Amino acid sequence: MEANAEISSKTSLNGYVMTGGSGNQSYAKNSSYQRDVADATKLLIQNAVSEHLNPRNFPGLETFYVADLGCSVGPNTFIAVQNIIDAVKLRYQISNDKIPEFQVLFNDHTQNDFNTLFKSLPLNGEYYASGVPGSFHSNLFPRASLHFVHTSYSLQWLSCVPKEIITKNKGRVYHIGAGEEVTNAYARQHAADFANFLQARAREVVPGGLMVIVLPSRPNGVPHSRVSFNILNGIFSSTFADLAKKGMIDEEKLDTFNLPIYATSPQELEATIKHNGCFSIEKIECLPKITTKDVPHVVSLGTRAITEGLIKEHFGEEILDGLFEHFTNKLLESLKDIESGLRVNLFLLLKRKDEDTSTF
């Protein structure tokens, strides 16, 4: 069983964080699509808790621990957390068990803007809140301490760009259009990262505890190029190439920059989960289609809020305005391509098997 293997040392220490603060270009102001995704999971989370969480598995429980991994700066994390707490409270009421107190652990990389996160924390008194900095590809919490783990729109991020593609993906910043060798390198990196993620959670989640994973995906057997998530990133990649041709970006810098994200398939996820062996797959399905119109400047602002830190670190701040102005124009020209792609968000419910976690 792979859960006893040593966690890879390739995990990024600093990670990739969203634009902080609450300004017009912040993630807090430009993550409406991710909020729609959080809203779309509400009923699924209610059903998951109702059908798969048994309070009798935690006799005499005083505190129920919830972790949101990749929380960023809000407000989406608060929506997800409230959905979980409401569902757990209802489950305890139905089973006539005493409702425990709730401790919510908000996790993201050390560079995340936790100040903005906690400034906007809801003051409803329904749970205690703590921040936990660090990479979720490694251990973050004490052994067998978590009852519910949630992560949304975070696990598409890789811990690092696959080293073998640095010299094989020149002129691009993503794997779309780069050929099978580059795409396979991305797939292998994502599988390794997901294996590390599961290994860490196997140690931390109590037997009978639940984990919900929501992430952009592609259907089994469907080419990467047909998925809207990848089409969008392909257009973003071509934006960099255009600026390099105009002399606005140094070509050598472009050749060493790649987006560390990957849209996996259910089949790929299932293979890693089964190899880990510590979790049962209780549900794996696509979220209901989110009916949002692709407005170019809104999509561009959202992309900037997600990638600005990465781009600034590699190219410098001076290219940002020109880059995203050009990206907005390219989106306007490519709306039909984006809207014709498959928009898939995967909901995955895992349950920790009844095994001794002390060996991890």
TrEMBL record:
Signal peptide annotation: none
Organism: Penstemon smallii
Keyword Hydrolase set for record: no
Transmembrane parts of this sequence: none
Protein's GO biological process: methylation
Name of the molecule in the record: S-adenosylmethionine-dependent methyltransferase
Family indicated by similarity: Belongs to the methyltransferase superfamily. Type-7 methyltransferase family.
Superkingdom field: Eukaryota
Keyword Transferase: yes
GO molecular function annotations of the record: metal ion binding; methyltransferase activity
Record keywords, A-Z: Magnesium, Metal-binding, Methyltransferase, Transferase
PANTHER family: S-ADENOSYL-L-METHIONINE:CARBOXYL METHYLTRANSFERASE FAMILY PROTEIN
